Amino acid sequence: xxxxxxxxxxxxxxxxxxxxxxxxxxxxxxxxxxxxxxxxxxxxxxxxxxxxxxxxxxxxxxxxxxxxxxxxxxxxxxxxxxxxxxxxxxxxxxxxxxxxxxxxxxxxxxxxxxxxxxxxxxxxxxxxxxxxxxxxxxxxxxxxxxxxxxxxxxxxxxxxxxxxxxxxxxxxxxxxxxxxxxxxxxxxxxxxxxxxxxxxxxxxxxxxxxxxxxxxxxxxxxxxxxxxxxxxxxxxxxxxxxxxxxxxxxxxxxxxxxxxxxxxxxxx
Length: 268
Hints:
By secondary structure, the protein is an all-alpha fold. The protein is built from 8 helices and no strands. Helix 3 runs antiparallel to helix 4 and helix 6 crosses helix 7 (203-233).
């Protein structure tokens, strides 16, 4: 299977290529040495597997839930500032560990759990704030996120949705466009401006959120395809943590966008 694009910046083509090449190079070096036994790097135990990646993803999600418990239980409507520290730590810590993981995939078994912890702080705080404004919204957003994940996984596994090159290119372009739009809005906010429709509970604002949720969800399909390709390439075992990390990045984005969409619908 040819390597294709993925719009998830964490699951880049170069990541799996370099990892697979490094594993192959290490095996070649061992084979050219004493040569008395088959190098361990060539055994199936040292190769990335789909089941191993799924297991790591469950571990990271569990860490998110455990870490999110602390800001969730700390928050109260009378003292909303109590979770601001968690949110800031989660935001900054998550960004730093994400960057480290991208450039140091071989230590993803350390940085990915740390990233999950920071995202738990962030999501726990943000979710508590939304829940105070719109009771019941968090469980709805969580359920919808899981439902979308399962539905797309089944659709991908059954072949109902195929990650063709044109499909990948379209999602890649759409995701990049959304990222640029958010960045421009952030910069405009520093000067007292901004694109109000992004946050407004208007038909246009709701429509925008629906589109973003769809794009975020379709990124899961690209992630599934990319992980499958990495398994076929025989990427090293540590890439399971890296791939699970990439999936978590998409799931966090999807959950936040669903939360935003539900909040707009509640306001209407």
